[in-house]
Amino acid sequence: MSKHKKKPPSPAYVLGVGLTKFVKPRGKADYTDLGFEAGVKALLDAQLNYDDVDAGVACYCYGDSTCGQRVFYQFGMTQIPIVNVNNNCSTGSTGLAMAREMVGFGAKDVVMVVGFEKMAPGALQSVWKERENPTQRTVDMMREIRGVTGAPATAQMFGNAGREYMEKYGAEARDFAEIARINHAHSAKNPYSQFQTVYTLDQILSSPTLHAPLTKLQACPTSDGAAAAIVVSEAFLAARPHLRAQAILIAGQCLATDAASLFNDRSSISLMGFDMSKHAAEVALAEAGVSSARDEVQVCELHDCFSANELITLDALGLCEPGKAHEMVRSGDITYGGRTGKAMMADTRDPLAQCAELVWQLRGWASNRLVQGAKVALQHNLGLGGAVVVTVYKRADGHSSNEVVAAVPHLGYNPATEARGFTREQVERVRSRTGRSEWALGDTLRRVEARF
After folding, report:
1. What percent of the chain has pLDDT over 90?
2. Which site in 105, 271, 306, 326 is 20 to 30 Å from 50, CA atoms measured?
3. For 43-73, what is each residue's pLDDT tens digit?
4. What percentage of the chain's residues is helix, strand, coil (to nearest 5)?
5. Contact partners, residue 219, CB within 8 Å, separation at least 6
6. Alpha helices for 47-172 (secondary structure H)
7. How many CB atoms lie within 10 A of CB 305?
8. Pairing mode, if any, of strands 55-59 and 82-85?
9. Tell me, what's the pLDDT at 3?
């Protein structure tokens, strides 16, 4: 780690966000359509035209190179730089971190980040069979310390971390199931979530076992969907004071990778990136001026691909005392009204969807699932291999979620509580006026409208 004193970035803000619904991978919508829908919604929310965008960041794990250009060209071909990012499950938040750096260090004023994924059904699979998987050494270490079973590799790895937490600190299988019960209850209030069914604790415990203590209803599914965010500079915002109320400050952020403890500890918890999550949280919180996550963070979106990962991550982020995450679960502190009232997008794991949820929470728009009085929001995303991004958000005007930001004039609805489409007039409002290509757009708009 560099010991050199680093120049702090200038303020960067999330001005607009947009989402598609997240659905089972059935090939019904291509990534071109998903990315376009999310991007249009984000531009509408930001009250900007694509001509205002200085750079684009495309985020995806499954797809050929330059898929990002294929998506962005639909808004306009304005010769801006477009970067394609793949960082496993932290891909979208890595794109957000790149946008913040571009803006924060003066390279750009407006960066558009679009994350999209079109996945294969079933458990995650490696695409490149003729070369070593980048997580192979992690799997090899798991084999040495816990052995292997026929369960999906990720279920084994996170399940083993859960087992170790049980052995060290006294967590029980019911604690992991309770996390899933709460997250499914949260997702039923989010119109974009893939799962909308509420389950009892017994139903979750009795669902098919993946790798104990994990059952099927404690795992996120594969999904098709997209999300987008518009990140802007202080100078850009200062020139448009009418937009400041809706802007959400990225108050602190850290993109980090693994420490040597990943392998040296010979620990199932360490193997799942616990130390890089802990480090990233400490750095991001310090930058944001938050001295205690446990006392000052009111709403959190964390990477909960499996309930076991949520449990160990509560600990890594400092949201509970060390070794006490299961007690936090038992006390009801991981839902609305608790010390850390999470409004989880439990069924997507999408980092930019997490960003959108926290933006809506801080604006006061998530009225059917609002964390009252929230002033500090925390986002965590982890990709095995590995990378983690922790982001701290605050409102640009300094207010809490109790003071609701006025609706964006031309949206016509609250996107936090309704998953709607858009009109052709709205598309005209956001597509480039100087560099649009109907050939690049093709039939995308027609297909998107058909899904609405």
Report:
1. 87
2. 105
3. 999 999 999 999 999 999 999 999 999 999 9
4. 40, 15, 45
5. 155, 210, 305, 306
6. 67-72, 91-104, 136-146, 153-169
7. 20
8. parallel
9. 58
